[in-house]
Amino acid sequence: MNGIIILIPVALGLGLLGLFAFLWAVGRGQFDDLDGAALRIFMDDEAPPQPPDPHDTAK
Questions:
Q1: How far apart are CA 32 and CA 40, in angstroms?
Q2: What does the alpha-carbon distance between residue 55 and residue 8 come to, in Å, rounded to a whole number?
Q3: Which of 13, 14, 22, 40 has its CA 20 to 30 A from that of 4?
Q4: CA angle 40, 44, 50 (to 5 degrees)
Q5: ∠29-32-34 over CA atoms, to 5°?
Q6: Helical ranges in the chain per DSSP H
Q7: Are 32 and 38 in contact (CB under 8 A)?
Q8: Would you state the pLDDT for residue 59?
Q9: Is the pLDDT of residue 5 over 80?
Q10: pTM greater than 0.85 (yes/no)
Protein backbone atom coordinates (compact mmCIF):
# COMPACT_ATOMS: atom_id res chain seq x y z
CA MET A 1 0.00 0.00 0.00
CA ASN A 2 2.90 2.33 0.68
CA GLY A 3 4.17 1.78 -2.84
CA ILE A 4 0.98 3.19 -4.34
CA ILE A 5 1.48 6.40 -2.36
CA ILE A 6 4.80 6.86 -4.15
CA LEU A 7 3.93 5.44 -7.57
CA ILE A 8 0.80 7.50 -8.26
CA PRO A 9 2.53 10.91 -7.92
CA VAL A 10 5.52 9.62 -9.91
CA ALA A 11 3.21 8.42 -12.71
CA LEU A 12 1.30 11.71 -12.72
CA GLY A 13 4.57 13.66 -12.79
CA LEU A 14 5.93 11.66 -15.72
CA GLY A 15 2.64 12.06 -17.57
CA LEU A 16 2.73 15.83 -17.06
CA LEU A 17 6.36 15.91 -18.14
CA GLY A 18 5.47 14.06 -21.35
CA LEU A 19 2.54 16.40 -21.99
CA PHE A 20 4.78 19.42 -21.45
CA ALA A 21 7.41 18.01 -23.85
CA PHE A 22 4.74 17.39 -26.51
CA LEU A 23 3.27 20.87 -26.18
CA TRP A 24 6.76 22.38 -26.29
CA ALA A 25 7.52 20.49 -29.51
CA VAL A 26 4.22 21.62 -31.08
CA GLY A 27 4.98 25.21 -30.11
CA ARG A 28 8.43 25.03 -31.71
CA GLY A 29 6.99 23.75 -35.01
CA GLN A 30 8.32 20.19 -34.92
CA PHE A 31 5.15 18.81 -36.51
CA ASP A 32 4.51 21.52 -39.14
CA ASP A 33 5.89 19.72 -42.22
CA LEU A 34 5.32 15.99 -41.95
CA ASP A 35 5.53 15.29 -45.70
CA GLY A 36 8.63 17.35 -46.47
CA ALA A 37 11.16 14.91 -45.07
CA ALA A 38 9.40 11.95 -46.70
CA LEU A 39 9.39 13.58 -50.14
CA ARG A 40 12.91 15.00 -49.93
CA ILE A 41 14.37 11.65 -51.01
CA PHE A 42 12.72 12.05 -54.44
CA MET A 43 14.31 15.44 -55.14
CA ASP A 44 17.39 15.44 -57.36
CA ASP A 45 20.53 17.09 -56.13
CA GLU A 46 22.10 19.77 -58.25
CA ALA A 47 24.96 18.55 -60.42
CA PRO A 48 28.39 19.57 -59.13
CA PRO A 49 30.00 22.40 -61.11
CA GLN A 50 32.24 21.26 -63.94
CA PRO A 51 35.89 22.40 -63.91
CA PRO A 52 36.83 24.78 -66.71
CA ASP A 53 38.14 23.20 -69.91
CA PRO A 54 41.80 24.18 -70.40
CA HIS A 55 41.41 23.79 -74.18
CA ASP A 56 38.50 26.20 -74.39
CA THR A 57 39.54 29.25 -76.46
CA ALA A 58 36.24 31.13 -76.22
CA LYS A 59 37.57 33.68 -73.73
A1: 15
A2: 79
A3: 22
A4: 140
A5: 130
A6: 2-27, 36-39
A7: no
A8: 55
A9: yes
A10: no
